Amino acid sequence: MKKRIINKRFLFEQQLKPKFWDWSVQDKQLLDDWETNKDKIFRLIFDRVRTLVEEDEFVEFAIVVHDRDISYGAKLVEPHVHGYIDFPKKFDLSKVASVLGVERERIETPKSKGGRAYTRINALAYLIHAKDKDKYQYPASDVETFDTLDYEAFINQNKEDLEKYAAKKNVRNQMKV
């Protein structure tokens, strides 16, 4: 039996291939041309997340496509989405996976030694690789939030801390060589 995980905050990641999504045939067809249908796919995912809460409850949500990530220095990885969800109350990870239409293993609950506020910063920063300058830097404008968050303002407000972390990481990586 799988361990039950209950949390308010979730991160998910999944390739943009129909076989990986437990959606209706019609909804899966959007994935066949994800570049054209990206906005519809994002809206579909957001609407599915919203089914878990009451209409007047606020859910912070952010999603982005990663289509320029490189694996082992040379090969482009399959295009995939990364998403961030912060619910107003706790949910079982299995329930969130079911609503998203992905396997449980594609979802995690962020953890950080810095506490809840820091996990939010880390999770949101990862959407564009803001703390990892060795990875492709996605524009903040690529992140869709459905007005639950001003993502570009968030990045600008935390820019100094994100750049400090990236610089420290770069120094640590150079020392390993």
How would you summarize what this structure contains?
One of its GO terms (biological process) is DNA replication. Helix content is 37%, strand content 20%. The protein is of the alpha+beta class and 177 residues long.
Q: Could you describe the 3D structure shown?
A:
The chain is an alpha+beta fold and 177 residues long. It has a single domain (6-176), classed as Replication Protein E1, Chain: A (3-Layer(aba) Sandwich), CATH 3.40.1310. The chain is built from 6 helices and 6 strands. It starts with 5 loop residues before the first strand and ends with a helix. 22% of the residues are buried.
Write out key terms for the chains shown.
two-stranded antiparallel ribbon; single chain; 37% helix; four-stranded antiparallel sheet; globular; Replication Protein E1, Chain: A; 177 residues; disordered C terminus
What's the helix and strand layout?
Blueprint (H helix, E strand, L loop, with lengths): L5 E10 L9 H5 L4 H17 L9 E7 L3 E2 L3 E2 L3 E13 H8 L6 E2 L7 H11 L24 H7 L1 H18 L1
Antiparallel strand pairs: 1-5, 1-6, 2-5, 3-4
- Named at the architecture level, the CATH assignment is 3-Layer(aba) Sandwich
Order of helices and strands: EHHEEEEHEHHH
The overall strand count is 6
Strand fraction equals: 15-25%
Shape verdict = globular
Uncertain spans, ≥5 residues at pLDDT below 50? Answer: 170-175
pLDDT averaged residue by residue: 91
CATH topology: Replication Protein E1, Chain: A
